Amino acid sequence: MATVILPKRSETALAVPSAGSLEAGELAMNITDGKFYTKTSGGVVKEIGGAGAVTLQDVTTSGAVTNNDIVLDGSDLVFEGALANAFETTLTVEEPTADRIITLPNQSGVVAMDGDALAYSIVFGG
What we know:
Layout: E1 8-10, E2 27-30, E3 35-39, E4 45-48, H1 56-61, E5 77-79, E6 89-91, H2 117-124
Parallel strand pairs: 1-2
Antiparallel strand pairs: 2-3, 3-4, 5-6
């Protein structure tokens, strides 16, 4: 008969094992999140494996912050709004032919859209 080896495990979302619950090199698994952890010889619990299972949703749910640029390769930003319904606002980009920079002003307000006559007259005086 085969021997079944089971790592320490949890089914609590976002739960990470404490350093006191693992020996150095021992494996633990969060079944709900699909993540494996181990403890280093220095006593630090680390997630192991590739980052392929990490999504932007995982990062924002855990409240993480980055100082790095976020690069979207061919992706749109889709805003659902307060109600999850059939209507969304999508921020997209035309295929760039050169590097472009769009700077948002350091002030509160509403962004004017092409075809908004009042905004055009205020910005361009026409």
